[in-house]
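User: As part of a screening pipeline, I want to sanity-check one entry by hand. Below is the sequence and the SMILES for zinc ion. Please return the complex as C-alpha coordinates so I can compare it with the automated output.
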Amino acid sequence: MHLFLREPSWLTEMADGTLKQLNPFSGTEVWTVPGRGNRPLGIKLPDPAPLAPGEQTKACSFCSERYLETPPEKSRVVRHADGTWETRYRTPAEHLFDTVAEFRRVPNLFEILSFDYWHANYGYRLPERIAERKARYLASPAGRQHVLGVIDTKLRASGKSPAEVAAMSEDARIEAASGFFGGGHDVVLARRHFVDGATDNTQLASSGTLTPDEHAQFLNFTVEGAATLLSLNRYARYVAVFQNWLKPAGASFDHLHKQLVAIDERGVQHELAMTRLRANPNVFNEDAVNYAAYSNLIIAENEHAVAFAGFGHRYPTIEIYSKSEHSNPWDHTPDELRAMSDMIHAMHAATGVDVPCNEEWHYRPADVDLAMPWRVMLKWRISTLAGFEGATKIYLNTIGPYAIRDRVVPKLYALRDQHKIAQMDIASECACRPNSLKYNRPRH
Ligand SMILES: [Zn+2]
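Assistant: Here is the complex for your manual check:
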Protein backbone atom coordinates (compact mmCIF):
# COMPACT_ATOMS: atom_id res chain seq x y z
CA MET A 1 0.00 0.00 0.00
CA HIS A 2 1.25 3.47 -0.87
CA LEU A 3 1.19 5.55 2.27
CA PHE A 4 2.16 8.78 0.57
CA LEU A 5 0.10 8.61 -2.58
CA ARG A 6 -0.90 12.01 -3.84
CA GLU A 7 -1.93 13.35 -7.15
CA PRO A 8 0.37 15.47 -9.27
CA SER A 9 -0.09 19.19 -9.13
CA TRP A 10 -2.12 20.28 -12.14
CA LEU A 11 -0.80 23.84 -11.87
CA THR A 12 2.74 24.74 -10.87
CA GLU A 13 4.09 28.25 -10.92
CA MET A 14 7.86 28.50 -11.28
CA ALA A 15 9.96 31.24 -9.66
CA ASP A 16 10.18 33.18 -12.93
CA GLY A 17 6.38 33.11 -13.39
CA THR A 18 6.19 30.26 -15.91
CA LEU A 19 2.96 28.37 -15.25
CA LYS A 20 3.21 24.65 -15.93
CA GLN A 21 -0.11 22.92 -16.41
CA LEU A 22 -1.12 19.30 -16.68
CA ASN A 23 -4.56 18.28 -17.84
CA PRO A 24 -6.00 15.81 -15.29
CA PHE A 25 -7.96 13.90 -17.93
CA SER A 26 -5.85 13.92 -21.09
CA GLY A 27 -2.35 14.29 -19.60
CA THR A 28 -1.68 17.22 -21.97
CA GLU A 29 1.20 19.33 -20.71
CA VAL A 30 1.09 23.06 -21.34
CA TRP A 31 3.36 25.90 -20.27
CA THR A 32 2.46 29.54 -20.15
CA VAL A 33 5.52 31.74 -20.31
CA PRO A 34 5.35 35.04 -18.38
CA GLY A 35 5.03 38.38 -20.04
CA ARG A 36 2.92 37.24 -22.94
CA GLY A 37 -0.49 37.15 -21.34
CA ASN A 38 -1.45 40.79 -21.69
CA ARG A 39 -0.80 40.97 -25.38
CA PRO A 40 -3.76 41.33 -27.71
CA LEU A 41 -5.13 37.98 -28.83
CA GLY A 42 -3.51 38.43 -32.22
CA ILE A 43 -6.70 38.18 -34.23
CA LYS A 44 -6.65 39.66 -37.69
CA LEU A 45 -10.00 41.18 -38.55
CA PRO A 46 -11.07 41.49 -42.17
CA ASP A 47 -11.62 45.01 -43.46
CA PRO A 48 -15.31 45.84 -43.14
CA ALA A 49 -17.21 45.93 -46.44
CA PRO A 50 -20.71 47.41 -46.60
CA LEU A 51 -23.50 44.87 -46.95
CA ALA A 52 -25.20 44.79 -50.35
CA PRO A 53 -29.01 45.15 -50.31
CA GLY A 54 -30.55 41.84 -49.23
CA GLU A 55 -27.19 40.29 -48.31
CA GLN A 56 -28.32 39.91 -44.68
CA THR A 57 -30.45 36.89 -45.59
CA LYS A 58 -28.50 35.36 -48.49
CA ALA A 59 -24.79 35.77 -47.77
CA CYS A 60 -24.13 32.01 -47.65
CA SER A 61 -25.79 28.63 -48.19
CA PHE A 62 -26.90 28.56 -44.53
CA CYS A 63 -28.87 31.80 -44.91
CA SER A 64 -32.65 31.99 -44.68
CA GLU A 65 -33.30 32.75 -48.36
CA ARG A 66 -31.25 29.73 -49.44
CA TYR A 67 -33.07 26.83 -47.78
CA LEU A 68 -32.91 24.84 -51.03
CA GLU A 69 -29.10 24.70 -50.94
CA THR A 70 -29.09 22.46 -47.87
CA PRO A 71 -30.36 18.85 -47.93
CA PRO A 72 -33.96 18.09 -46.83
CA GLU A 73 -34.65 19.60 -43.43
CA LYS A 74 -35.26 17.29 -40.46
CA SER A 75 -36.73 19.86 -38.07
CA ARG A 76 -36.99 23.57 -37.39
CA VAL A 77 -37.81 25.92 -34.53
CA VAL A 78 -40.15 28.79 -35.31
CA ARG A 79 -41.07 31.75 -33.13
CA HIS A 80 -44.70 32.85 -33.21
CA ALA A 81 -45.84 36.45 -33.09
CA ASP A 82 -46.88 36.01 -29.44
CA GLY A 83 -43.31 35.03 -28.56
CA THR A 84 -43.95 31.30 -28.13
CA TRP A 85 -41.66 28.75 -29.74
CA GLU A 86 -42.61 25.64 -31.69
CA THR A 87 -40.55 22.78 -33.16
CA ARG A 88 -41.80 21.50 -36.51
CA TYR A 89 -40.66 18.29 -38.10
CA ARG A 90 -40.08 17.15 -41.70
CA THR A 91 -41.25 20.29 -43.47
CA PRO A 92 -41.97 19.33 -47.12
CA ALA A 93 -40.03 21.20 -49.83
CA GLU A 94 -43.08 23.16 -50.96
CA HIS A 95 -43.55 24.60 -47.45
CA LEU A 96 -39.92 25.44 -46.62
CA PHE A 97 -40.48 29.15 -47.07
CA ASP A 98 -43.87 29.35 -45.32
CA THR A 99 -42.18 30.18 -42.03
CA VAL A 100 -38.80 31.61 -41.09
CA ALA A 101 -36.80 29.10 -39.07
CA GLU A 102 -35.02 30.47 -36.01
CA PHE A 103 -33.05 27.22 -36.01
CA ARG A 104 -33.02 24.33 -38.48
CA ARG A 105 -31.52 20.85 -38.37
CA VAL A 106 -30.40 19.63 -41.77
CA PRO A 107 -28.05 16.86 -42.93
CA ASN A 108 -24.48 17.93 -43.57
CA LEU A 109 -23.86 17.96 -47.33
CA PHE A 110 -20.41 16.45 -46.77
CA GLU A 111 -20.72 13.90 -44.01
CA ILE A 112 -17.81 12.74 -41.87
CA LEU A 113 -19.36 9.27 -41.63
CA SER A 114 -21.79 8.74 -44.47
CA PHE A 115 -24.84 6.49 -44.62
CA ASP A 116 -22.62 4.19 -46.73
CA TYR A 117 -20.18 3.85 -43.81
CA TRP A 118 -22.90 2.47 -41.55
CA HIS A 119 -24.45 0.39 -44.32
CA ALA A 120 -21.19 -1.21 -45.50
CA ASN A 121 -19.68 -1.79 -42.05
CA TYR A 122 -22.73 -2.70 -40.00
CA GLY A 123 -25.49 -3.56 -42.45
CA TYR A 124 -27.38 -0.45 -41.30
CA ARG A 125 -30.61 0.15 -43.20
CA LEU A 126 -32.93 3.13 -43.16
CA PRO A 127 -35.37 2.70 -40.28
CA GLU A 128 -38.92 2.28 -41.59
CA ARG A 129 -40.12 5.74 -40.64
CA ILE A 130 -37.08 7.33 -42.33
CA ALA A 131 -37.59 5.25 -45.48
CA GLU A 132 -41.22 6.40 -45.51
CA ARG A 133 -40.18 9.99 -45.16
CA LYS A 134 -37.71 9.64 -48.03
CA ALA A 135 -40.41 8.18 -50.27
CA ARG A 136 -42.86 10.94 -49.33
CA TYR A 137 -40.32 13.73 -49.86
CA LEU A 138 -39.37 12.39 -53.27
CA ALA A 139 -42.98 11.82 -54.31
CA SER A 140 -43.59 15.56 -54.40
CA PRO A 141 -42.21 17.30 -57.52
CA ALA A 142 -40.75 20.14 -55.43
CA GLY A 143 -39.09 17.63 -53.09
CA ARG A 144 -37.61 15.59 -55.92
CA GLN A 145 -36.33 18.75 -57.59
CA HIS A 146 -34.78 19.91 -54.33
CA VAL A 147 -32.98 16.59 -53.72
CA LEU A 148 -31.68 16.39 -57.31
CA GLY A 149 -30.41 19.96 -57.11
CA VAL A 150 -28.54 19.37 -53.86
CA ILE A 151 -27.08 16.01 -54.92
CA ASP A 152 -25.81 17.55 -58.17
CA THR A 153 -23.99 20.22 -56.16
CA LYS A 154 -22.48 17.52 -53.98
CA LEU A 155 -21.42 15.31 -56.92
CA ARG A 156 -19.79 18.23 -58.68
CA ALA A 157 -18.01 19.32 -55.49
CA SER A 158 -16.72 15.75 -55.13
CA GLY A 159 -14.97 16.02 -58.48
CA LYS A 160 -17.53 14.83 -61.04
CA SER A 161 -17.75 16.98 -64.16
CA PRO A 162 -21.12 18.48 -65.16
CA ALA A 163 -21.14 16.04 -68.10
CA GLU A 164 -20.61 13.05 -65.80
CA VAL A 165 -23.40 14.20 -63.49
CA ALA A 166 -25.70 14.74 -66.47
CA ALA A 167 -24.91 11.22 -67.72
CA MET A 168 -26.16 9.65 -64.47
CA SER A 169 -29.75 8.45 -64.41
CA GLU A 170 -32.16 10.23 -62.11
CA ASP A 171 -32.49 7.05 -60.05
CA ALA A 172 -28.71 6.80 -59.64
CA ARG A 173 -28.59 10.40 -58.45
CA ILE A 174 -31.46 9.82 -56.03
CA GLU A 175 -29.70 6.69 -54.76
CA ALA A 176 -26.65 8.83 -53.97
CA ALA A 177 -28.93 10.92 -51.75
CA SER A 178 -29.72 8.22 -49.16
CA GLY A 179 -27.51 9.96 -46.63
CA PHE A 180 -29.78 12.98 -46.76
CA PHE A 181 -32.43 10.88 -45.03
CA GLY A 182 -30.61 8.24 -42.99
CA GLY A 183 -27.28 9.90 -42.33
CA GLY A 184 -25.83 10.59 -38.91
CA HIS A 185 -24.18 13.96 -39.49
CA ASP A 186 -26.45 16.95 -39.02
CA VAL A 187 -25.95 20.69 -38.89
CA VAL A 188 -28.01 22.97 -36.66
CA LEU A 189 -28.25 26.37 -38.32
CA ALA A 190 -29.20 29.63 -36.67
CA ARG A 191 -31.35 32.11 -38.59
CA ARG A 192 -29.08 35.14 -38.62
CA HIS A 193 -25.82 35.50 -40.50
CA PHE A 194 -25.44 39.11 -39.31
CA VAL A 195 -26.84 40.85 -36.26
CA ASP A 196 -30.08 42.77 -36.78
CA GLY A 197 -29.38 46.15 -38.33
CA ALA A 198 -25.85 45.20 -39.45
CA THR A 199 -24.38 47.55 -42.02
CA ASP A 200 -21.10 45.81 -42.80
CA ASN A 201 -19.88 42.23 -43.20
CA THR A 202 -17.95 42.13 -39.91
CA GLN A 203 -21.11 42.43 -37.79
CA LEU A 204 -21.66 38.69 -37.53
CA ALA A 205 -24.27 37.02 -35.36
CA SER A 206 -22.56 34.59 -32.96
CA SER A 207 -23.70 32.47 -30.02
CA GLY A 208 -22.91 35.43 -27.78
CA THR A 209 -25.07 37.88 -29.75
CA LEU A 210 -28.19 35.74 -29.36
CA THR A 211 -30.52 36.66 -26.51
CA PRO A 212 -30.43 34.24 -23.55
CA ASP A 213 -33.89 32.98 -24.65
CA GLU A 214 -32.74 32.37 -28.21
CA HIS A 215 -29.63 30.59 -26.99
CA ALA A 216 -31.76 28.34 -24.77
CA GLN A 217 -33.80 27.31 -27.83
CA PHE A 218 -30.57 26.67 -29.77
CA LEU A 219 -29.24 24.45 -26.99
CA ASN A 220 -32.48 22.52 -26.39
CA PHE A 221 -32.91 21.93 -30.11
CA THR A 222 -29.32 20.63 -30.37
CA VAL A 223 -29.79 18.30 -27.39
CA GLU A 224 -32.95 16.91 -28.98
CA GLY A 225 -31.11 16.42 -32.29
CA ALA A 226 -28.30 14.46 -30.60
CA ALA A 227 -30.79 12.22 -28.78
CA THR A 228 -32.65 11.58 -32.06
CA LEU A 229 -29.49 10.61 -33.95
CA LEU A 230 -28.57 8.17 -31.21
CA SER A 231 -32.03 6.62 -31.15
CA LEU A 232 -32.07 6.10 -34.93
CA ASN A 233 -28.81 4.20 -35.16
CA ARG A 234 -28.21 1.34 -32.75
CA TYR A 235 -24.59 1.03 -33.93
CA ALA A 236 -23.78 4.55 -32.78
CA ARG A 237 -22.06 4.79 -29.41
CA TYR A 238 -21.73 8.53 -29.24
CA VAL A 239 -22.91 11.67 -30.94
CA ALA A 240 -20.16 14.27 -31.06
CA VAL A 241 -21.55 17.78 -30.69
CA PHE A 242 -19.42 20.77 -31.59
CA GLN A 243 -19.49 24.28 -32.94
CA ASN A 244 -16.73 25.77 -35.05
CA TRP A 245 -16.94 29.54 -35.04
CA LEU A 246 -15.13 31.39 -37.83
CA LYS A 247 -12.79 29.95 -40.44
CA PRO A 248 -9.63 29.72 -38.28
CA ALA A 249 -11.68 27.38 -36.04
CA GLY A 250 -12.65 25.19 -38.99
CA ALA A 251 -16.00 26.70 -40.01
CA SER A 252 -16.90 26.57 -43.69
CA PHE A 253 -19.14 29.65 -43.37
CA ASP A 254 -19.14 32.53 -40.88
CA HIS A 255 -22.77 31.64 -40.15
CA LEU A 256 -23.57 30.32 -36.68
CA HIS A 257 -24.09 26.55 -36.68
CA LYS A 258 -23.45 23.45 -34.60
CA GLN A 259 -22.66 19.96 -35.87
CA LEU A 260 -23.84 16.57 -34.64
CA VAL A 261 -21.93 13.47 -35.72
CA ALA A 262 -22.90 9.93 -34.72
CA ILE A 263 -19.79 7.75 -34.32
CA ASP A 264 -19.16 4.11 -33.50
CA GLU A 265 -16.48 4.75 -30.88
CA ARG A 266 -16.32 6.69 -27.65
CA GLY A 267 -13.29 8.68 -28.75
CA VAL A 268 -9.79 8.78 -27.28
CA GLN A 269 -10.62 11.63 -24.91
CA HIS A 270 -13.35 9.61 -23.25
CA GLU A 271 -11.25 6.47 -22.94
CA LEU A 272 -8.52 8.44 -21.14
CA ALA A 273 -10.98 10.25 -18.87
CA MET A 274 -12.72 6.99 -18.02
CA THR A 275 -9.53 5.38 -16.73
CA ARG A 276 -9.35 8.16 -14.16
CA LEU A 277 -13.06 8.03 -13.45
CA ARG A 278 -12.93 4.29 -12.71
CA ALA A 279 -10.16 4.85 -10.18
CA ASN A 280 -11.98 7.76 -8.55
CA PRO A 281 -15.70 8.26 -9.25
CA ASN A 282 -15.49 11.78 -7.82
CA VAL A 283 -12.64 12.83 -10.10
CA PHE A 284 -14.63 15.48 -11.99
CA ASN A 285 -15.27 17.27 -8.71
CA GLU A 286 -11.84 16.78 -7.22
CA ASP A 287 -9.60 17.42 -10.22
CA ALA A 288 -11.78 19.81 -12.19
CA VAL A 289 -14.29 21.99 -10.35
CA ASN A 290 -12.97 21.71 -6.76
CA TYR A 291 -9.41 22.20 -7.95
CA ALA A 292 -10.40 25.20 -10.04
CA ALA A 293 -12.18 26.68 -7.00
CA TYR A 294 -9.20 26.17 -4.69
CA SER A 295 -7.04 27.79 -7.39
CA ASN A 296 -9.37 30.81 -7.76
CA LEU A 297 -10.18 29.96 -11.36
CA ILE A 298 -13.98 29.90 -11.09
CA ILE A 299 -15.41 32.43 -13.55
CA ALA A 300 -19.15 32.15 -12.94
CA GLU A 301 -21.75 29.93 -11.32
CA ASN A 302 -25.51 29.54 -11.30
CA GLU A 303 -27.78 26.96 -9.68
CA HIS A 304 -27.05 24.14 -12.11
CA ALA A 305 -23.82 25.07 -13.92
CA VAL A 306 -20.35 26.39 -13.23
CA ALA A 307 -17.62 27.80 -15.50
CA PHE A 308 -13.90 28.04 -14.85
CA ALA A 309 -10.70 28.89 -16.66
CA GLY A 310 -9.35 25.53 -17.81
CA PHE A 311 -5.80 24.28 -17.35
CA GLY A 312 -3.74 21.87 -19.44
CA HIS A 313 -5.34 22.73 -22.77
CA ARG A 314 -3.47 23.38 -25.98
CA TYR A 315 -5.69 26.40 -26.66
CA PRO A 316 -6.99 28.79 -23.98
CA THR A 317 -10.16 27.07 -22.77
CA ILE A 318 -13.18 27.90 -20.62
CA GLU A 319 -14.77 24.79 -19.11
CA ILE A 320 -18.49 24.77 -18.36
CA TYR A 321 -19.82 21.95 -16.19
CA SER A 322 -23.38 20.91 -15.54
CA LYS A 323 -23.97 20.24 -11.84
CA SER A 324 -26.91 17.95 -12.63
CA GLU A 325 -27.06 14.42 -11.30
CA HIS A 326 -28.05 13.38 -14.86
CA SER A 327 -25.21 12.33 -17.14
CA ASN A 328 -27.05 12.68 -20.45
CA PRO A 329 -27.92 16.19 -21.65
CA TRP A 330 -31.37 14.96 -22.74
CA ASP A 331 -32.12 13.71 -19.21
CA HIS A 332 -31.58 17.18 -17.75
CA THR A 333 -34.62 19.01 -16.39
CA PRO A 334 -35.71 22.18 -18.22
CA ASP A 335 -34.17 24.31 -15.42
CA GLU A 336 -30.88 22.44 -15.66
CA LEU A 337 -30.77 22.85 -19.45
CA ARG A 338 -31.52 26.53 -19.09
CA ALA A 339 -28.72 26.97 -16.56
CA MET A 340 -26.24 25.30 -18.91
CA SER A 341 -27.48 27.43 -21.79
CA ASP A 342 -27.16 30.66 -19.77
CA MET A 343 -23.61 29.76 -18.76
CA ILE A 344 -22.46 28.75 -22.28
CA HIS A 345 -24.12 31.84 -23.74
CA ALA A 346 -22.44 34.15 -21.23
CA MET A 347 -19.01 32.65 -21.92
CA HIS A 348 -19.48 33.18 -25.67
CA ALA A 349 -20.65 36.74 -25.09
CA ALA A 350 -17.63 37.50 -22.87
CA THR A 351 -15.25 35.80 -25.31
CA GLY A 352 -16.43 38.11 -28.08
CA VAL A 353 -17.66 37.58 -31.61
CA ASP A 354 -14.20 38.20 -33.13
CA VAL A 355 -12.50 35.27 -31.41
CA PRO A 356 -12.46 32.06 -33.49
CA CYS A 357 -13.49 29.26 -31.15
CA ASN A 358 -14.63 25.68 -30.86
CA GLU A 359 -17.41 24.69 -28.53
CA GLU A 360 -17.07 20.97 -27.74
CA TRP A 361 -19.53 18.94 -25.72
CA HIS A 362 -18.47 15.98 -23.62
CA TYR A 363 -21.00 13.70 -21.98
CA ARG A 364 -21.45 10.04 -21.22
CA PRO A 365 -21.23 7.76 -24.28
CA ALA A 366 -24.20 5.42 -24.76
CA ASP A 367 -22.41 2.25 -23.65
CA VAL A 368 -20.66 3.61 -20.56
CA ASP A 369 -21.81 2.41 -17.14
CA LEU A 370 -20.18 5.20 -15.10
CA ALA A 371 -21.87 8.43 -14.14
CA MET A 372 -20.12 11.52 -15.45
CA PRO A 373 -21.09 15.15 -15.81
CA TRP A 374 -21.99 16.90 -19.06
CA ARG A 375 -19.30 19.48 -19.73
CA VAL A 376 -18.64 21.92 -22.54
CA MET A 377 -15.24 23.26 -23.55
CA LEU A 378 -14.96 26.63 -25.21
CA LYS A 379 -11.57 26.78 -26.92
CA TRP A 380 -10.14 30.01 -28.26
CA ARG A 381 -8.40 29.15 -31.52
CA ILE A 382 -5.79 31.83 -31.33
CA SER A 383 -2.24 31.24 -32.42
CA THR A 384 0.03 28.94 -30.48
CA LEU A 385 3.75 28.61 -30.87
CA ALA A 386 4.77 25.89 -33.29
CA GLY A 387 8.02 23.93 -33.42
CA PHE A 388 8.59 23.49 -29.71
CA GLU A 389 5.51 21.27 -29.46
CA GLY A 390 6.70 18.82 -32.09
CA ALA A 391 10.02 18.34 -30.34
CA THR A 392 8.75 18.05 -26.76
CA LYS A 393 5.00 17.28 -26.74
CA ILE A 394 4.76 20.23 -24.38
CA TYR A 395 2.48 22.94 -25.67
CA LEU A 396 3.24 26.59 -25.19
CA ASN A 397 0.22 28.72 -24.62
CA THR A 398 0.33 32.48 -24.70
CA ILE A 399 -2.64 32.89 -22.37
CA GLY A 400 -2.77 30.96 -19.12
CA PRO A 401 -5.86 30.24 -17.04
CA TYR A 402 -5.46 33.33 -14.82
CA ALA A 403 -5.22 35.56 -17.87
CA ILE A 404 -8.38 33.95 -19.30
CA ARG A 405 -10.20 34.62 -16.02
CA ASP A 406 -9.00 38.22 -15.87
CA ARG A 407 -10.04 38.84 -19.46
CA VAL A 408 -13.51 37.33 -19.12
CA VAL A 409 -14.66 38.41 -15.64
CA PRO A 410 -14.81 42.21 -16.22
CA LYS A 411 -16.71 41.58 -19.46
CA LEU A 412 -19.23 39.41 -17.62
CA TYR A 413 -19.92 42.15 -15.07
CA ALA A 414 -20.53 44.62 -17.89
CA LEU A 415 -22.74 42.22 -19.86
CA ARG A 416 -24.79 41.43 -16.75
CA ASP A 417 -25.26 45.15 -16.03
CA GLN A 418 -26.54 45.59 -19.59
CA HIS A 419 -28.90 42.59 -19.20
CA LYS A 420 -27.27 40.91 -22.20
CA ILE A 421 -26.64 37.73 -20.23
CA ALA A 422 -28.73 35.94 -17.63
CA GLN A 423 -28.30 36.56 -13.93
CA MET A 424 -25.46 34.54 -12.42
CA ASP A 425 -22.79 34.82 -9.76
CA ILE A 426 -19.48 36.03 -11.11
CA ALA A 427 -15.96 35.35 -9.78
CA SER A 428 -15.77 36.17 -6.06
CA GLU A 429 -19.58 36.12 -5.78
CA CYS A 430 -19.60 32.37 -6.49
CA ALA A 431 -20.28 29.98 -3.61
CA CYS A 432 -17.67 27.48 -4.85
CA ARG A 433 -18.88 24.71 -2.52
CA PRO A 434 -16.77 21.54 -2.77
CA ASN A 435 -18.38 18.70 -4.73
CA SER A 436 -20.95 20.94 -6.41
CA LEU A 437 -21.30 18.40 -9.25
CA LYS A 438 -24.03 15.94 -8.27
CA TYR A 439 -23.38 13.19 -10.85
CA ASN A 440 -21.61 11.13 -8.21
CA ARG A 441 -24.29 11.32 -5.48
CA PRO A 442 -25.83 7.98 -4.60
CA ARG A 443 -29.47 7.77 -5.64
CA HIS A 444 -32.09 6.95 -3.02
ZN1 LIG B 1 -25.32 32.79 -43.95
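Points to compare against the pipeline: The chain has two domains: 11-36+266-429, 56-262. The first strand starts at residue 11 and ends at 13.
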